Amino acid sequence: MDIIKGILEVIAPNEITELLVLDRGFREVTYGTSQITVELDPGIYQVQARLPGARSEQLVAVESGQTVTVDDFELTFDSPTPLVGIPSTHEYQRAAAYGHSRTLHATLGEVPNSRLFLFSRSGNVGFPVPVPAFVVRGQGLEVRFPEFGVYDQGGGWLALSLALPAGTYFLEQDVPELGRRGQVLFVEKDWQTQVFAPWEEIPDFSKAVIHMRRASSEYLDFDPNDATQTALDAPTEAALEGLARGRLVMTRTDLQEFLNAKFIDPIMGLIGAYAMLVTDSSEYYDRLRNVVVPNLQMLLPHSPDVALLARLVGSPLGWATFIEPPLFAIGTERLLELAANGDVECPANSQLAEIAIRLTTGSAWTRWDEGISVADAREQLQSALRDRLPHGRFAGLSESAARLARELGLPLSIVTQEMSPPVEDNTLNDLST
Amino acid sequence: MPDTDFAVVIGISNYPGLRKPVQGAVRDADRFIDWLKDPAGVPDNQIHIKRLVSKDPPDPGMNPVITEIDDAYEKVFAQAENRRAGNIAPRRLYVYFAGHGCSQGSQHMALLLGDASRRYLNRSLDSSSYHDGLVRNAVFPEQVFFYDCCRNFDRRVVGRRSPWSDDDPSPGAANVRQIIFYAAGFTEYANETVFKYNEQQQGLFTMALLEALNGGGAVRQGNEWVITAYKVAYYVHQRLDELTKPMRLRQHLGWYPGGVDDLVLAPTTTPMLHNVHVSTQRPGTEIVVYDETVENEVERRPLVTNAVEFDLPAGNYVVALKPTGPKRIMPIGPGEPTMVEL
Lengths: 433, 342
What we know:
The structure holds two protein chains of two kinds.
Chain A: E1 6-11, E2 18-22, E3 28-33, E4 35-40, E5 43-51, E6 54-62, E7 67-70, H1 91-100, E8 106-107, E9 114-121, E10 134-138, E11 141-145, E12 150-152, E13 157-164, E14 167-175, E15 179-187, E16 191-198, E17 209-214, H2 227-244, H3 252-260, H4 266-279, H5 282-299, H6 304-312, H7 329-340, H8 351-356, E18 367-369, H9 374-388, H10 397-408, H11 412-432
Parallel strand pairs in A: 1-7, 8-13, 9-16
Antiparallel strand pairs in A: 1-4, 2-3, 2-5, 5-6, 9-13, 10-11, 10-14, 12-13, 14-15, 15-18, 16-17
Helix pairs in contact in A: 2-4, 3-4, 4-5, 5-6, 9-11, 10-11
Chain B: E1 5-11, H1 25-37, E2 49-53, H2 66-85, E3 92-98, E4 101-102, E5 110-112, E6 124-126, H3 127-137, E7 142-148, E8 177-182, E9 192-195, E10 200-203, H4 204-216, E11 218-221, E12 224-228, H5 229-244, E13 254-256, E14 264-267, E15 273-279, E16 286-290, E17 297-302, E18 307-313, E19 315-322, E20 327-332, E21 339-341
Parallel strand pairs in B: 1-2, 1-3, 3-7, 7-8, 15-21
Antiparallel strand pairs in B: 4-5, 5-6, 8-13, 9-10, 11-12, 12-14, 15-18, 16-17, 16-19, 19-20
Helix pairs in contact in B: 1-4, 4-5
């Protein structure tokens, strides 16, 4: 006898809500954003709705031949960016962000043509938290917080504002239970990169929202009343949370607005571009190649993300060799895929290579385990390679290296280098027996 | 059934090379073995149950290692084939592991073995390769895995492949049913805690799991109570939430039933029933309870006063006031409310 199905309709309170339907075995039945309509066997299902900073779950009974609608989620968007209208922010946090984004706590390097503004705030004011410590390093420069920068434990915020040369930097901090973690930061000439992180047990930069504002323009520095930032903050966070899980959480309208906003905030353009790549649509591919990527190249000429996007869409201006990682984790993943296939060069002794063998996950931003030394990580990789080499006769080492690089998702150059002396000996032993 | 079921149980508390013990792992493995013997009915001998656990100081430890584990599997396969030669078809393999682990992907886990060290984390077992190998050799048509270890992401740690990963699939490979329970979601840590009743550390997952296997995951089938995989997953999911919330830990059950609808794991005479009080101020004659299919009736009681009580095993139900009253979904289980107003 045929089962008469029922219809489940799920409507989220806004367009950026992620929706998920699970069956009684907690298996994903369907996934979407904003709205889902699906035909299902009768039964009890779990519906999950997720917004940045909020998550709601409901059980729903789907009955044979009937339609059931779920639209009463209680979700409130929250953000670490201290914009007017964000529920967990306070006036003095907004004032601190406004003021310190216009102040310089340190100037680094001979050509400090870019600016970096780190701001973290707690939504739980009144419970003073310990003063955190972190370091920003790169381009042969280093600055430590709290030696530089300001904080207010009672008010639950900290700020660090720097002038420094354009390029890629690394933020390092100790994370409870995880150990020391590194994270990529990027600054561009004539732009201020603004990093807003929630302050829970520590400032959690893995969950940061990042924006960029052009220096010396009407958009200079952070403004809690900024209309563009306010309009796009929620979609930005939703898109970043989605990218952290490899999913696209963005409507077509949002996508267009992100791309339009790139001249004010190039991070919006990068998010939009990666979102287009995730969809794998030829329509988007042409637009990326002909319009979006050339504009981003003009805005962010030093950015590994932009150079990677150019490479991915076949632009002649894409870099052939990468020594620094992209800011976005999805970018680093894509770059390592290319490098594993030998489609781009990633020198085995580059910063990118050292990070690739220690990558961690769960953030929209490229992060890695700084608690393990590069030497130890290389030794572990050698051990993994030894274990995975086939026994008996096999094709040449280069063929094995190519296969293992793809299997492990690591640049071919690293795998080739680590395979060379010890693995070769091991292989010879295998053959001789 | 007992003669047809086998188990490989691994508990590693002592990791000399990591200097980070998993205090409760061996005890948890032994608790799991207790369940295997009774009520799961796996014969209480070293032929059917392979127990591989770490040793404590002053023994240098560094065990079990990969060769011991492969050897245990080979012996289990040999015994199972012996049974088959005697016209007793092997049915099920249980695999349990408690110790350290990490993950490369949502369905991968490297189980760290006794000789692992910070420098040699790849002295570990690639769980997905073993799953694949066990499907290929198809000695057991039913395979159930329980892993009580962390699943934090580590790209470098792949683990060693199973010796059967390159074998051609056996004729029965297509019919192998695998169910996998992970103590934590991908990238999460599995946690231990000290419980007051014995002041000994125990994995939260194994604690919830054993509660489920010993009655929390019960469902009535005909006139008998049985423990099924889906019900175990439901119970452990709820119980882990209940255990981890007060400690502000992030640990959620990871479970992969594959294409398996459900699997009876064991009979039970001690189903854990939760008392539920259903009341209403509306006119009606009966209260009816349906199971998670929304169509199978599991209880029907006349409404004499304005309230009815039920004793139900963990699960999601629909409770309805008859003949025309409202319906409501009623989740039952650890941490769920026991009063329902219609």
